[in-house]
Amino acid sequence: MKVKEVAELVGISVRTLHHYDAIGLLKPEQTTESGYRIYSEKNLETLQQILFFRKLGFPLKKIKDIINSPSFDREEALQVQRNMLLEERARLDNMIATIDKTIHHTKGAIQMSDKEKFAGFDFSHNPYEQEARERWGDKVVDESNAKIDKMSKDEQKVLGEEFDDIYQDLAAIRHKSPDSDEAQAAIKVWYDYLNKIGSYSLDAFKGLGQMYVDDERFTKNIDKYGEGLTVFMRDAMAVYADRNKK
């Protein structure tokens, strides 16, 4: 199959396939003299694996390491991916049930306890932990996890609610200039929050903001609070870091 045919079959862009080829993640079986990429059945199987891992939040570098490992077993990988997706489905089903109950509660049809209102929320799991380790080393991540582990369930819940409040406050002012006093005061709250659970230098804080924009997973999740929030946070975090290093 040619690259355009594969793109149409899978539902991804030709540009994405070109990128996978360029970084050595998915090399087509052959390239014709006229430059056309030709993909084999084996290529399609590998692409399926890549997209399963991407759906589960794995960065491309990690996927490349996994599928190029001599010990990689496709059947075993599929089973692991299936288990991870089942866990994700269970979590989502739990949250959907909480939403349904909340709708009935809002209409007065049922009463919900405070505990039931937060069923399905789990702030103890960080899907980006491995990437954080790769970017900033084990120490900052281990320190962060140690602080969270020492907290009670109630304290962890409060931490999660504080996270949500900070993002909503930032979203409300995302149309202002990132270097405005209001924006800088709000982003300082985010910096202080991160250092409550970890140890982020100003450089790491600035780098984190850039990663929000570079990594589509972060962009997608952050922009749920308001379109353009990711870029606003990146710029505000950079200004904060640069100003406070002086």
Automatic annotation (TrEMBL):
PROSITE patterns: HTH_MERR_2. Keywords: Activator, DNA-binding, Transcription, Transcription regulation. It comes from the Bacteria. The keyword DNA-binding applies. SMART domains: HTH_MERR (SM00422). Pfam families: MerR_1, TipAS. InterPro entries: DNA-bd_dom_put_sf, MerR-type_HTH_dom, MerR_fam, TipA-like_antibiotic-bd, TipAS_dom. Residues 1-69 form the HTH merR-type domain. This is MerR family transcriptional regulator. It comes from Lentibacillus juripiscarius.
